Amino acid sequence: MSWFRREENKIEGASESRVRTEGLWIKCDECGQIIWKADLDSNLQVCPKCGFHFKLGALARIESLLEPGYELVDGNLRSTDPLEFADLKPYAGRLKKAQHDTGLNDAVVSAVGMLGGHRVVVSAMEFGFIGGSMGAVVGETIARAVDRARETRQPLIVVSASGGARMMEGIVSLMQMAKISAALAKLDEARVPYISVMTDPTAGGVTASFAMLGDLNLAEPGALIGFAGPRVIEQTIRQKLPDGFQRPEFLREHGFLDAVVPRKELKSYLARALDFMQVR
Amino acid sequence: MSEPTATNPAVVQEPVPEAWVKTELARHPQRPDPLAFIERMFTDVSQIYGDRAFGDDPAMFCAMARLDGEEVMVIANLKGRSTKEKVHRKFGMPDPEGYRKALRAMKLAEKFGRPVLTFIDLMGANPGLGAEERGQAEAIARNLLEMSRLRIPTIATITGEGGSGGALALAVTDRVLMLEKAIYSVISPEACASIMWRDASKRAQAAAALKATADGVKSVKCLDDVVPEPEGGAHTNPGEAARLLAERLHLHLEELKALPVEELLQRRYEKFRNIAQFYTAE
């Protein structure tokens, strides 16, 4: 036995990019700065040093956009597991755990309230709920937000954060893309504003449906936004992808984003855009 | 035969779930591709090219054609037959310009009141660097929205593999048909297996769990009609397979043409707005 050999390897999580110290301190993924969690919370989860945008939960997002007194709506739907899907674990169990962990019924939260001087409908996706994936509940909840916006003639804002369709709901999840897009066609005809805000990440069937269909398409700095995942593309074309691929500047350069808006400026940007988008 | 599920270990051991047998039939190398069906069912086929913006996608086929003398727009993805042609046509996976070309063809049909018939057999939209640069997601999204309000009768047929958003971008139609041994899925069984089982070789189990067969899709009411195939699959008798499909297309087209356009639009909207409602309200 060597004198220096460790009996057990006690170094854990060496590959983790973010190390938590009892949850009080958080290391920035981007600049490595150690941030006091309360500072991060009071700064909309944006690193005070480098401006890196951490993920913001759906409820915190709504809180950040709407004036106090907003009302949460359509939060009562729950998936019925249409395929009775099971892989290594049953989907029903994954749903229960996600519901327990997030306190939400599924991966989206809708609210109505005031954004500056505008009365709006907001749907914000929750990445912490099975990767923000879209199944029957997300599809119906967002479609109801679209209907609500059309019926009340209040602008619609959808904040995306999703890995795409929820494969555990199979073809049912695919159909949600058609459902929301059909509802958006009606909203378009009614000339009610719709602004899509893409946050990290926005991918797959969410990008390829409502996220790309805004009258304005906005994104937060640093968000990964695309159709196919970077790994899938690398495997298909067998070459490394360029730096900044599927990042907001890439999308803006190619003509698919109207603006990249930092989180702290989002509310004022939206209010200004809604001033313009009044039907005369 | 009991429905194979991944929760039942006794069935997992079973070597080939029915869903995987059908997946292999849907991908059979001799299975007639969309063009093979089109060649047998339509006359006076005049192809049109290009999206008027970027280029022409060799994986997307659009043509004015006649179905028993009636003018229709035919849209299909092209897979290619020789190895060289398959590479040229990207194994049937369209790029954004392909979806935009398809939409242009649909708008042309709408302008002149001609029905649109689409035929789909693709693994998915092309996952590539250029596809992302040119907005694959936007192109698909735009088709979903615009197809929901085209003022003409529309019918989609999945003849082989209906791969995710790339297939849906041609299938927001008044009627969605699947051949008996076709599959229609949000993700390929291989990709699903490698994500959920972390093992791509579990593809047969994934196929069963996804319920992507015509029966499976019908059971969750995401499909309007299942088109019968000759015994053993379409490849055993492509002529008969095309005849059976043409019969169904006629039937659906006649029904749709009888509807006033506003009612047609209202029914299509309601179908997709109310599709796949699998939730409970507390």
Describe the 3D structure.
The complex is a heterodimer of chains A (280) and B (282). Chain A has 280 residues and is an alpha/beta fold. Chain A has two domains: 54 residues, no CATH class; 221 residues, 2-enoyl-CoA Hydratase, Chain A, domain 1. Chain A has nine helices and ten strands. In chain A, the strands form two sheets. A seven-stranded mixed β-sheet of chain A has the order 3-5-6-7-8-9-10, sandwiched between helices. In chain A, helix 4 runs parallel beside helix 5. The mean pLDDT of chain A is 93. By secondary structure, chain B is α/β, with parallel strands linked by helices. In chain B, a hairpin with a 2-residue loop joins strand 2 and strand 3. The longest helix of chain B is centred in the last third of the chain and has 20 residues. The mean pLDDT of chain B is 94.
Instruction: Predict the CATH topology of the largest domain in chain A.
Output: 2-enoyl-CoA Hydratase, Chain A, domain 1
Q: What is the highest CATH level, the class of chain B?
A: Alpha Beta
For this structure, what is the CATH homologous superfamily of chain B?
2-enoyl-CoA Hydratase, Chain A, domain 1
* Total discrete domains of chain B: 1
What share of residues of chain A is helical? 25-40%
Q: What's the CATH architecture of chain B? A: Alpha-Beta Complex
H/E element order of chain B: HHHEEEHHEHHEHEEHHHEHHE
